[in-house]
Structure formats: structure tokens, C-alpha cells
Amino acid sequence: MRDMINAAAFKESILCAYAALQANIQAINDLNVFPVPDGDTGTNMGLTMEKAAMELRKNDFPTVSAAADCVASALLRGARGNSGVILSLLFRGISRKLKGLHEADAKSFAAALQDGVEAAYKAVMKPAEGTILTVSRLAAEAAVKTAEKDAGLGKTFEAAIKAGDEALADTINLNPVLKKAGVVDAGGMGFMVILKAMFASLKGEVFAPEDQMRIEEITEKTSGGYDARENITFAFDTVYIVRKKTPDVDLEPLRAYLDSIGDSLVISDDDEIFKVHVHTDTPGDALNESQKYGTLEVAKIENMVIQADQNAAGEKVISTEILQDVEKELEAKEAEPEYAEPEKQFGAVVVAAGPGMQKLFRELGADRVVTGGQTMNPSTDDILREINRTPAETVFVLPNNKNIIMAAEQAGELVKDKRVIVIPTKTVPQGISALLNFNIDENEEPIVEAMKEAAANVHTAMVTYAARDSDFDGHDIHAGEYLALLDGALLGSCDSQESLLQKLREAFGQYDPSFLTVYYGEGVEKESAQKLAETIAGDFPDAELSVVDGGQPVYYYMISVE
Q1: What is the pLDDT of residues 254-264, one digit of tens each?
Q2: CB neighbours of 328 closer than 8 A, spacing ≥ 6?
């Protein structure tokens, strides 16, 4: 075990951590207990770390300080979802403590880890225990205590991992929701995957290859062997590169599709091309679907079952690789975000998914629309880019999802020459109501008050499907059932829309609504939406009814009650 962490070792350890996190994405996602399909913790942490891996691969660094700065900056801009933002805050603190160091010993690294935890706690308005915050805090405290005894880097990491594992196991007792579901915290699990992979890298037990380190490789080198064939879920290791139709093509639907037919999914891209790595039993389907987004250039398909058998027999592995060396195209520098000089006092940036929703926000006066929402949380950098493109001195940001608020706030901190105000809207209907009350002829304070008040007066019902079996909040839920939520709380699940509709009508009765707006989503026929809306409105004859084609993914219906 090395005594010091230099720049090269730190870089390698982060690449290993990224690869291990990618290999564990689904396992971490499976810990999410809420049955609604969402931008799960593993996915968000993986996408956040992907940004750091991409930046690290572009350069070598003279000092551990420079390498840590690169990671912190990349994570800050790439952060997605609350878990990704917290991860970026942890590494921002680490970077700050390693500032100016050529190498880091056990004491300096332990102190950096603790500084990262403090930075994360300070940034979260209401830190909750039984989460990634608890796990990282107790791991850091153990590291500091051990390092103070001159125990060395190895013992320091061992102490941190032991304490972190114990804290992770205890999250089930600290969080009532986790206790009922019988699982540990997903974010805490992600943090421990990162910490353990960094330790394995620093010990020289695992190495990050060019694209991705499979979890089987980590298992083999850290636990003394494994049966590779038994650990293969999908047969074909599939890697390919596609030239985009347009620079801003939305790859999130492709990501969702590929995730449904395989695992170990990684998609990286620049303005011209995107590269996919996925394990699947149907590589042809993956390639065909991807060609909807551009022109296939090169591909590599390898049968991992055959390779595992050849390895076991001591034979030379035959590769079916036909991939050309075009990795350099992915190394092209990302274009600098456009900057619009202020032409007016106030502007607005909103987050929304679905062509109808995005069109509606533009018609209501939004300057820029960030594509994203449930299941596809935009990064800090995505939001920052659209703030910079807004030609206003003060930019109002409407996240329209509770899991995007922290990323929006973080983007606001990165803006240099504009004032940014985040209106913490948690649903798209709240954002619509807030934007309807965005009066640019007023002063800033009345605008903020009016938008917040308008959002608070909106009750939002959402109809979707159960992504997993769950016993949640007294409801026995089965995957595939219709789900209804009201203001974020689970209203119930049913095997038919008619039964669910009755629950919604009963729930709306408590509000005596004056306005009912039904936004129907992707794949829902207009006639079906109109029929549902009229059935609901039948209980409230005095309410003004509107039916809007939102085209949003995930949710069959979003219903605004005012």
C-alpha cells in the first residue's frame, strides 16, 4: 500500500470509482423505495461521476491538488439530482482541503474527506440523517481519528470503510421509510462503492481501463476469484459510436430504452457524436434504435459467455472487435456555453419535458427551456448553459421538480454576470402558474412573492405506473399498476384507470376547485384525455376545465387543481 496519493494515483482512483459506480447503478437504483419511476440515485450519481471521468481522461496533472480541482469542477457542473449535487459538494470540500498539495498523506486526505462532509452539510438546508450525509460523516470521522495516530493511508482507508459500512447498515434504523422497506440508503451505498473502489485502486488491486471496469473484475481482485460465467446477466458487450443528427439531440429516451434491454449502460457524447457501452442480449435492437438519433459509424460486439468459457479453459480469447480508434473524437473540448448580453431586466428559464409542455412554457414567456424532469434530471451545467443564454440581468429559474431544485441553486452560484433567483417549484403545473404571474413590469420583490404564492396555490395530481413492487405508506403496490400522487404523496394504486379516477375525484373534493387543467402525456389519445377530464369535472360543475396536450413522458396525466 502506498504512503502518499500523488496526482496519477488520485486520477486512477477516481476513474476506478466511476467504473465501479457504473457497474453498480442498477443495484443502487433498486434501493429506491418509492414506486414511481424517477431519476434514480444510482443513475444520477453515475452520470455525475461520468463528467469527472471524461475530464480526467483529457489531461495528466502535476499535483494532487490540480487533479482534485479538475474532479471538483467537473462534478459541480455535471451534478444531477440531489444525490449528484451532494456528491459534488463532498468533492468540492476535498478539493479545497487538498489545495496547494503536491501529494496527500493519510492525515491530509482524511482531513480533506472531513472538509467535504462539512461542505455538504452546510449546503443542504435541512440535513437528514440516515442518508449519504450520515455515511460520509461517520466514515470521515473514523478516517481522521485513525490518521491522527500515524496509522498510514491503508489503515486510514480501512477505518473509513469499516465505519462507513456500519453507518450504511444503520441507515435502515434511522429512516422510517427505509426501515419499512427493509433497505439501506441508496446514496450512502453509492458513496461506499466510490470509497471502496478508490481504496482498491490505491492498493494496486484494480485498474481502470479506457472505457469501463466491470464489477466482475473488482470482485475477482478483491475477494479472491469468481465464476465469470455465472456473473454474466446479458451475453453481448456492445460498444458503438453514432454521429448525431443535430448537436442538441436529446439522448435521454435512448438511454431509457437501452437501460430496459440491458445493463452496465454508459453513454458519453460531445456536440458531434455519442458513444454507447451496454451489455445486452439483443445488440441489433440497440444499434437499430440508436440510428434514430444519427448515423452509425463503428461498432464492437463481443460475446462475454464465450469469452468466459475460453478464459476458464485457458484458451486465447477471440475478440469480435471491429471498433476503430475514434476515441479522440470524444476528447474534443466541449463548446463554451453561449452568453447572451442583457437586453432586459428580467428573464426566465424553466425545466420541462414533452413538446407540448415546452411549447406552452415558451408561449407563456420563458426565454429558455431545459429539457428534463422525472427520470431525466438535467445537470447543473445544463441549467447554467440556459441561464447564460438568457438575455436578462436577472434570471428566474423554475426547476419544476423537487429533485432538480438543488442543481438549479448550484447553477445560480456559478453565474458570474447575472443575478439568478430560483423559484422552488416542485411540479410542472406549479411552474406554469408561477410563470403566469411573472410580471416583468414589477420590481423584483413583488415578482418573487407573486410567483411563489401562485405556485403554492396549485395542487398537482399525477398519474403514472408503478416501477416496482412496494409496500409503501400503507399501500400494497405491484409493478405495472396505475399510480396516483397528490402533491407528492401517494394517493393509491389500482389495476384500472377507472378505479384510480374515483380516488382522484374524491381527493379533489377537499379543495373546491375553481380551475381544473388536465395535461395529457406521451402516448395518450386526445379523446381519452377529454373523456377523463369531463368525468372529473362532472363533480365540480363550477370549475373552469382545460385539456392540454403536454406530451410529457412518464406521467399519463398531470392535473392542476386551483
Answers
A1: 988 988 888 76
A2: none
The rounded distance, in Å, linking the Cα atoms of 21 and 214 is 10
- DSSP letter at 379 equals B
> At 270, is the secondary structure helix, strand, or coil?
coil
Q: State the Cα–Cα distance between residues 240 and 256, nearest whole angstrom.
A: 17
**Alpha helix (H) ranges present in 366-483?**
380-388, 405-414, 428-436, 444-456
Contact 423, 351 (CB under 8 A): no
Q: How do residues 176-234 score in pLDDT, each as one tens digit?
A: 777 777 788 889 999 999 999 999 899 888 765 543 444 334 333 332 333 434 445 67
Q: Is the pLDDT of residue 69 over 90?
A: yes
Rounded CA gap, 235 and 304, in Å? 5
Q: Cell numbers of 396, please?
A: 428566474
Matching residue, cell 498539495: 101
**Strand 344-352 relative to strand 392-398, pairing:** parallel
Q: Phi first, then psi: what are they for 288, rounded to 5°?
A: -65, -45
Residues in the chain: 562
Instruction: State the Cα–Cα distance between residues 294 and 284, nearest whole angstrom.
Output: 15
Q: What angle do CA 79, 107, 192 make, to 5 degrees?
A: 40
Q: Are 24 and 466 in contact (CB under 8 A)?
A: no
Q: What is the identity of the amino acid at 338? A: E
Count other C-beta atoms under 10 Å from residue 507's C-beta. 18
pLDDT in tens, 503-552: 888 889 898 899 999 999 888 899 999 999 999 888 898 999 999 999 88
Q: What's the whole-model pTM score?
A: 0.69
Average pLDDT of every residue of the chain: 82
What are the backbone angles phi and psi of residue 276, rounded to the nearest 5°?
Answer: -120, 135
Q: What's the grid cell of residue 140?
A: 470521515
- The amino acid sitting at 392 is A
Q: What is the pLDDT of residue 136?
A: 95
pLDDT, tens only, 264-313 = 676 766 567 777 767 788 877 888 889 889 887 767 676 665 544 544 45
Task: For the chain, give the longest Cα–Cα distance.
Answer: 78
Residues 398, 408: Cα–Cα separation, whole Å: 8
**Rounded CA separation 157/447 (Å):** 50
The helix (run of H) or strand (run of E) holding residue 179 is helix 176-181
How far apart are alpha carbons 560 and 518 in whole angstroms? 7
Backbone dihedral angles phi then psi of residue 91, each to the nearest 5 degrees: -75, -25
Torsion angle defined by CA atoms of residues 102, 104, 109 and 111, in that order, rounded to the nearest 10 degrees: -70
CA neighbours closer than 13 Å in the CB half-sphere of residue 67: 23
Q: Which residues contact 306 (CB under 8 A, 6 or more apart)?
A: 318
Task: Report which of 44, 53, 57, 60 is spatially closest to residue 19, judged by C-alpha positions.
Answer: 53
Q: What grid cell was written down for 176? A: 422510517
Is the separation of the CB atoms in 138 and 167 below 8 Å?
Answer: yes
The answer to whether 299 and 238 have CB atoms below 8 angstroms apart is: yes
Which residue in 404, 399, 390, 392 sits closest to 422, CA to CA?
399
